[in-house]
């Protein structure tokens, strides 16, 4: 499998090994963090009522909503799952980039790794806000006071050493992959040049195609990331209706879930399939349907972003990252629609033959943009 993806390239083999080791190490560490946070979230749920009684007995009036504290602690687990999925996602992206010799996607993986380094630091802040002792009397402080009476006190959240380890390892992995990516960029650039020649029009078409396919893959990841966070909040509200200020009925909650699942399935599964089919068959109808679905997804994301801004209490523990994912989805969505239109303009100009020539999956001769029948090769 590795030899098929990497071929004779030493740097390609290094990249696959490096990315695989990164996935194994970070997933293992993040799994431990997930387990520890899940345990602490359960502890918080158990001791919040007692902590609330203690604070009320001290005549402390500025008491956080206990149900919001519980929800914040439980929502936290979703982000660890997303971080684990992100590691597998970058490995899959790299395998795909090796197979298709997609240098643009390799550069995108470098940026994605840098974003994960940033998030590795953010997750410490997330846990600290809920699980670390505060200087004054507060609900979280009282919870920790109660924890001190247990055989295994958690004055600071127990996952802190593992979170620091994740940051250190991610810096190492991201830096190492950036070096490998530079080597691959030079290697793949020359390989593609030898296969397609110096025709600028064809190279530009292929470049747009590569960027479009890459953006669609990131669309899937960020759309699913938003969906996981949104569903976690909705499910928690359904389990603890007293924590919601909206008191949605079962029928309203069911309607929200069904509509969201339809939109999420369409954006994450149906639209990518339409894009792939439309490009493979050069079907303008499929691409028109893809753009129509893309516009519908944009509208849905705008509606949800408006809800997060206008009703922050409804999304306690998730509003910041819901906002981030929704904004990224909106940006990616607009870029995707534009690139889909550009790709559609390039239909019937030899794009399919070009893709097959570079990937090695098409046995037909390469034709130029003007249909002269010339093979684009300098060999």
TrEMBL record:
Listed transmembrane segments: 12-34, 78-99, 106-124, 164-185, 211-236, 256-278, 285-303, 323-344
KW Transmembrane helix (keyword) present: yes
A GO-annotated cellular component: Golgi apparatus
InterPro entries: UPF0658_Golgi
Superkingdom assignment: Eukaryota
UniProt keyword annotations, A-Z: Membrane, Transmembrane, Transmembrane helix
Signal sequence annotation: none
The keyword Transport is annotated on this UniProt entry: no
This protein's name: Uncharacterized protein
Native source organism of the sequence: Lobosporangium transversale
């Amino acid at each position: 499998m590795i030899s098929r993806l990497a071929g004779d390239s030493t740097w390609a083999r290094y990249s696959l090994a490096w990315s695989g080791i990164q996935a194994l190490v970070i997933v293992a560490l993040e799994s431990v963090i997930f387990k520890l946070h899940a345990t602490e979230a359960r502890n918080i749920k158990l001791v919040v009522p007692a902590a609330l009684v203690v604070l009320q007995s001290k005549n402390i009036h500025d008491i956080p909503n206990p149900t919001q504290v519980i929800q914040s602690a439980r929502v936290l687990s979703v982000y660890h799952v997303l971080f684990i999925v992100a590691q597998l996602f970058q490995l899959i992206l790299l395998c795909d980039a090796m197979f298709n010799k997609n240098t643009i996607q390799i550069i995108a993986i470098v940026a994605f790794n840098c974003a994960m380094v940033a998030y590795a630091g953010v997750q410490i802040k997330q846990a600290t806000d809920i699980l670390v002792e505060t200087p004054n009397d507060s609900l979280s402080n009282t919870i920790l006071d109660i924890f001190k009476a247990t055989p295994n006190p958690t004055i600071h959240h127990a996952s802190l050493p593992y979170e620091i380890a994740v940051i250190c390892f991610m810096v190492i992995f991201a830096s190492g992959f950036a070096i490998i990516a530079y080597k691959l960029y030079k290697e793949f650039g020359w390989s593609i040049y030898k296969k397609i020649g110096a025709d600028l029009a064809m190279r530009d078409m292929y470049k747009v195609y590569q960027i479009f396919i890459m953006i669609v893959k990131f669309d899937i990841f960020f759309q699913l990331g938003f969906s996981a966070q949104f569903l976690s909040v909705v499910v928690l509200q359904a389990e603890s209706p007293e924590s919601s200020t909206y008191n949605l009925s079962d029928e309203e909650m069911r309607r929200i879930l069904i509509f969201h699942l339809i939109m999420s399935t369409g954006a994450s599964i149906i639209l990518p399939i339409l894009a792939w089919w439309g490009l493979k068959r050069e079907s303008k109808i499929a691409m028109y349907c893809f753009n129509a679905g893309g516009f519908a997804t944009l509208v849905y994301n705008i509606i949800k972003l408006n809800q997060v801004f206008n009703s922050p209490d409804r999304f306690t523990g998730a509003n910041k990252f819901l906002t981030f994912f929704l904004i990224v989805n909106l940006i990616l969505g607009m870029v995707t629609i534009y690139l889909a239109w550009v790709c559609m303009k390039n239909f019937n100009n030899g794009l399919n033959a070009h893709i097959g020539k570079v990937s090695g999956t098409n046995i037909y001769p390469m034709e130029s943009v003007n249909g002269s029948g010339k093979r684009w090769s300098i060999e």
